[in-house]
Amino acid sequence: MTAVGVREIREVAAGAFAWLSGHRGDFALGEDALTVDGQVDATWKPLGELAQTCASVRSHTPPSDPLHGCASDLLRFAWQQTGRGELFLRLQRLEPFATYPLEVYSVFASAGLRHSGYEAAAATTARTRGWRLTEQDPTRRLGVLRAERRSGIHRPEQDTQVLRRTWLGGLPEPWTFERSSGYALTHVVFHLTDWGRRPEGVPADLAAYLAHWLPPWLDTCLDAGMWDLSCELLVVSASLPCPPDPATLQDAWTRIARAQHDSGALPQQDPQDGAGADPEPDFLHCYHSTLMAAFAAAQTVKCLAGEDGGDDRGPHTGGIQNRYGKQGVPG
User: Which domains does the chain have, with CATH numbers?
Assistant: First the structure.
């Protein structure tokens, strides 16, 4: 892939982080985050996804990279929103058998941000039969097992047993791919690779299957304007043991760059009525796709740099002159 192509990918990431930094207040936890009837999908879920993206981007970029600095800044913000972990302990007391607090906490733990009191309380709950027997779909189960290990909880249950019960793990007929199975397979790969850190975590048969079928699935999603799922598939593509096809990447990133708003926000999907340019969607309808654009861009650039045996992005210390008129991204 050409240096121009890599610069284009970095511009998508820079724009996404500019939007995320400008909207950090929308990720803040409100008073309803600890209420019994609080909406987890509008409170803890966005904050946890912000933390996961920033922890991942930070791990995939060198400290001198402006993207690394911005990701680190937002990760600190997210940790502060949790009371530096204290709110997880309060959640544990309110909902001892809910898994989402551990899943969110484990993101911070993977980045070295820990709360010993919460970990002790979670470990006690995890020893109960009630916790171990909580019914979950296989993809979610993989995520919970990963969250447990990140948080210092270890059990004999193996990923392999759970993996083969997932859609991807069964190597399904490729024509059965649809939106729901697409999101399921991306998360299976996220869990197997620890969000792109360990490409070797994908078994050989799954890696070969994805190498063959991921390009046409990605093309289908791009044609449908499904930008959120397209970015998740690009993360998967850049997380596999074999590097993705440069031509496929070039086409995908050119289309995503065109779909990105000037503010840096990326909509989840193109409008279905063919009405033309879509006004910038509200926070809840673009935050996840914008996060995934930032994550996919950082992971793709890292993959391409490794493939080339070097980094053709230019000096990190000079920042990136991008279409947002700023050097690098805001810190």
Answer: 3-315 (1.50.10)
